[in-house]
Design goal:
By secondary structure, the chain is of the alpha+beta class. It has 17 helices and 11 strands. The chain has helices at 14-31, 40-51, 66-75, 82-95, 116-123, 135-138, 142-149, 198-218, 251-261, 269-276, 284-298, 317-326, 330-336, 348-368, 371-378, 387-396, 400-413; strands at 99-104, 109-114, 153-156, 169-176, 183-191, 229-231, 239-242, 245-248, 303-304, 309-310, 315-316. The strands form 3 sheets. The protein has a 5-stranded antiparallel β-sheet with strand order 2-1-5-4-3, sandwiched between helices. A 4-stranded mixed β-sheet has the order 8-7-6-11. β7 and β8 form a beta hairpin. The radius of gyration is 23 Å and the shape is globular. Keywords: DNA-binding. This is Transcriptional regulator. One of its GO terms (biological process) is phosphorelay signal transduction system. It comes from Streptomyces zinciresistens K42.
């Protein structure tokens, strides 16, 4: 395969390939093995789908309707670029009897537009605005998988995990916030087998880049110098936006900046050593070398010493979530939480902060009992095994899919000692 993200190699017979994929899908659902020639990206998605408890005969649930849907769409950043997306994709969708769709970062469809007859067919599988098509609940599909892996992806026919979706082919590309790099959602084109052509993947990718460029132009100018911004949630390497440039930091430098951003008064060398290193044999010389490298990267005198501190306040997504939780703004805190803090970090202070932040938010969500907020957490990678949240979700939204997942989790937690859950291979 020249491009692993494209569904069909040139010259492939689509009908024959569909038959091969259906046999492979049946093999996977029966035995948990993925035979060739299933693409690696699809095989990985099938395995994630199975681990999330998705069944091949599932159906999408509609989570937002009427006023709730309208209010959510109006506030979503992608609403500002929908006129551009319609201009670029609308005619292509209508003339080709396809659909254009836009989802948010959780795989929830916000807009579905296009050919009327195709829309009526898609209604039968709840491919409609307000429905959740995240990979964790609807298995392999272009919009859900695109936001899951943060890559443009094409899904052809029986590559879809759920059988009801297998008559369709789709291509989707994620759209990012031009300032922070965060995934805002994805643009998708859905229709027949003809969309398996490489051009459809390139097309949605170009539309996504155009949307990002438009968003960058729509950012209002600041009256004065921008305060540096640190994004460390849901990523192992933090991003620092300062003086108009974005810097990707190493894991160690990310840990240092996260800790210093929360301590404007600064930390001594000994305090930083204890905060960063489990190994007591690490010497101050090692820490000073890391700080010297970080100072060169940051420039402009942002990092001072004796004690080590930031000379300018740095706004981080960590402190934003903390502030919103402290003031009772649970919905706003959940919106700002993009995942565990530096999930690969083993720095003692970061591990403690990561646990405290996640526990504080999840307990607030459980207390709030909002089904959409609980579903967002439960269907996220960090919440898929969170028994307390799944129990809270089942109490307020006892759908068959939710109850099935809760039952599976409870069975796993009460399994005999020595029993090990093994994902399908």
């Amino acid at each position: 395969m020249t491009d692993p993200w494209v569904a069909l190699e040139p010259g492939t017979d689509p009908a024959e390939h569909i038959r091969v994929l259906r046999r492979a899908h049946e093999t996977f659902t029966a035995a948990g093995t993925v035979p060739k020639p299933v693409r690696d990206v699809v095989a990985a998605s099938w395995r994630r789908s199975a681990r999330a408890g998705v069944g091949p005969d599932g159906t999408a649930s509609v989570e937002l309707v009427d006023g709730d849907l309208g209010a959510y769409r109006a506030e979503h950043p992608l609403a500002r670029v929908m006129p551009l997306i319609r201009e670029l994709m609308g005619t292509f969708a209508s003339d080709g009897e396809h659909l254009l769709a836009v989802c948010d970062a959780h795989g929830r469809l916000l807009w579905v537009e296009g050919h009327p007859a195709t829309r009526r067919r898609a209604d039968g599988m709840n491919f409609v605005p307000g429905a959740r098509w995240a990979e964790s609940v609807m298995g392999t599909n272009a919009p859900g998988t695109a936001v899951a892996v943060d890559r443009p992806v094409q899904v052809f026919a029986a590559e879809h995990f759920i059988r009801q979706v297998q008559p369709w082919t789709c291509a989707a590309a994620p759209v990012h916030d031009p300032r922070t790099g965060r995934v805002l959602g994805a643009v998708d084109i859905t229709g027949g087998d003809g969309l398996a052509h490489p051009h459809s993947l390139g097309f949605v990718q170009a539309v996504a880049r155009a949307a990002e460029s438009q968003l960058a132009l729509l950012v209002p100018p600041e009256a004065g110098p921008e305060a540096p911004e640190l994004s460390a949630l849901g990523r192992d390497e933090a991003l620092l936006l300062a003086e108009g440039r974005t810097v990707r930091l190493s894991r160690r430098h990310s840990e240092i900046l996260v800790l210093l951003a929360r301590r404007p008064e600064g930390l001594t060398g000994d305090e930083l050593l204890c905060a960063l290193y489990e190994d007591e044999s690490v010497t101050p010389v090692t820490l000073r070398a890391e700080l010297a490298r970080l100072r060169r990267i940051l420039g402009s005198g942002l990092l001072d010493s004796r004690p080590y501190r930031l000379t300018t306040p740095v706004e981080s997504d960590v402190t934003m979530v903390e502030r919103r939780l402290e003031t009772g703004l649970v919905t706003a805190a959940a919106a700002a939480y993009r995942g565990p803090l530096l999930p690969g970090s083993q720095a003692p202070a970061v591990v403690r902060l990561r646990r405290r932040l996640a526990d504080g938010l999840r307990m607030a969500l459980i207390a709030r009992r909002d089904p959409d907020l609980l579903a967002d957490w439960a269907h996220a990678p960090w919440g898929e095994d969170d028994l307390d949240v799944w129990r809270a979700l089942a109490a307020v939204r006892p759908t068959p899919a939710v109850c099935s997942r809760l039952s599976a989790l409870e069975s796993e937690l009460t399994a005999p000692p020595g029993w090990e859950r093994r994902p399908p291979r």
